[in-house]
Amino acid sequence: MKYTKTACALLAAVMMAQSGMTALAAETVSGTDADRVGPGFETDMGAGSGTETGTESQPAAYPMAWERVNGVYMDSTGTPIEGALLRGISVSKWQANIDWGRVAADDVSFALIRMGSFGYEGEYTMDEYYDVNMREAKANGIHTTPYVYLQTRTVEEAREAARYAVQMAAPYEISYPLAVDVESQYLMDLSVQELTDIVNAFCEEVAAAGYTPIVYSDYNKFTTEMDTSQIPYDIWLARYGGDHNYPNRTMWQATDQGQIDGISGNVCLEFAFHDYAASAQSGQTALTPGEWAQENGVWYFYQNGNRLTGWIYPDGNWYYLDPNQGGAMVSGTSMVIDGITYQFNGSGVMQ
Description:
The chain has helices at residues 5-18, 100-105, 130-139, 155-169, 192-208, 219-224, 276-282, and strands spanning 2-3, 68-69, 72-73, 86-91, 110-120, 123-126, 143-150, 178-181, 213-218, 234-238, 249-258, 267-272, 291-295, 298-303, 306-307, 310-312, 319-322, 328-329, 333-337, 340-344. It is an alpha/beta fold. α4 (155-169) runs parallel beside α5.
């Protein structure tokens, strides 16, 4: 894997921010403009990707479109959006400097914030506004979740990208899902099964680290490029001007022409049909921290009463619980997992 210097710069920025300093990471160019699309991409710089054709959405005919009217959110035709609980936005470097205080005052409850583009020719390119957007949104009472523009072409690369995403998410308080954005043309020559397996591999690593995964794409890609019947995770559907219903859909990207106070130009508007923050507080979807247990000299890890297998990230370190050994922790050896050789110290920590 080739880490761009951006990744290191962002990690340094996070550490500086935690010590009271303000810093932003400068983004390097990945060699492609493929990541200049996606949930937080401003339409006047190219194209949004939420429609079935890949073109931008049409202006709303209803003057109160996407607003709350008598306690109910309305769509572009003035029809109530059935089941919509909260309104949010998705943003990236394309929105540049954001006044998060004004955003919060404009009925924005959550924000999906671009972490970066992972996987194009092995590069990990961080969004230069990721850190400041995560911190400032949270400081103004907006629930945050990072999203990764995924360009990995193998299951092994997807797992590695997910583990890196978890590391980059760790310094922040996140009560909404960690999202994977699956729309890069770099992936569209893969078979349906190959792309489905890549998406599941990324989400499995995210879930193992204790986050809730969610998969973003547009209706066309969900129905032709991957098999969502095999993806047991929440769906973040982009479909402009169409039916927003879809199996496991908990978020809907309704338009790329939203107008929000505090943001210059257009922004994608999102609607949540599940209140992740409230569920986490009530324990409905939150995982318990889990605990280690030694049985006959072998260490296992339990969560919600279940013995886990595979990768886990319980304390800021990665461990592997061998599924072929009933979830026994691997330690003091090397092991080939998904075609990659990993080294584990005597305490089971991946080196």
